Amino acid sequence: MEEFGYNTDPSQGVHILLESIINPKSSSNQKQIDKQILNDLEETSFLTENILSIIRQVPKLPKSMPRFPVDLSMINSQLDQINSQLKEISSSLNDLKQSS
After folding, report:
1. Whole-angstrom Cα distance, residue 98 to residue 92?
2. How far apart are CA 91 and CA 94, in angstroms?
């Protein structure tokens, strides 16, 4: 939270609160408490908006789509095929590079 410019020291709010309990008639203490509460509310609002914007960016899976791949062996065999094709392409590129 410090990277957003907010004070992350919780003891500051605690000290202000304790001071207001000890000396409740001090208007400066009340002003500090009000200011701290407003700052906390602004920070909470800002962070909530950031969290909501991140959540909105996460794509939702269709209900019919399984959450787990059905056939991992099929996916593995396809990945093996792709890997062997990439090796062939790499070998061909190396051959071309050496011949030129």
Report:
1. 10
2. 5
**How many structural domains is the chain composed of?**
1
The kind and range of the H/E element at 54 are helix 27-57
**Comparing 40 with 8, which gets the higher pLDDT?**
40
In this structure, what DSSP letter does residue 58 have?
S
Range(s) of the domain holding residue 8: 2-99
Rounded Cα distance between 87 and 90, Å, is 5
CA 58 – CA 50 distance, rounded (Å) = 13
Say if pTM beats, i.e. exceeds, 0.70.
Answer: no
Dihedral through CA 19, CA 25, CA 28, CA 32, nearest 10? 50
